[in-house]
Specification:
single chain; mainly alpha
């Protein structure tokens, strides 16, 4: 689905991975791969999915994730979604990690 190039298929796969994959590191890597995608829906959902991973697993590589979400927050098309993901990360990451 990720290789299809179809934004709808990519979005379906992103949400499935974020909500169901037991490996948060792999799920995070997939989301980061699509955080700069040309399609606005893919970019926005990649950000949202990072928030889901934080909520479900309580772990993310903050040194990688935060700068990318901060940069995405300046994107007028998906900035709100990036801000929501940052809020989710702050809320759900274990104390001392965020």
């Amino acid at each position: 689905m990720f290789r299809s190039g179809d934004p709808n298929s990519i979005c379906d796969a992103l949400i499935r991975v974020a909500l169901n994959d037991p490996d948060p590191v792999w799920a995070e890597d997939i989301c980061l791969r699509f955080i700069s995608h040309a399609n606005v829906e893919v970019r926005g959902l990649a950000a949202t999915c990072l928030g889901h991973i934080a909520r479900i697993h309580g772990s993310l590589d903050l040194a990688k994730v935060i700068p990318l979400l901060d940069r995405l927050a300046a994107d007028p098309e998906v900035g709100g979604r990036a801000e929501d993901a940052l809020d989710d990360i702050r809320m759900h990451m274990q104390k001392g990690s965020a």
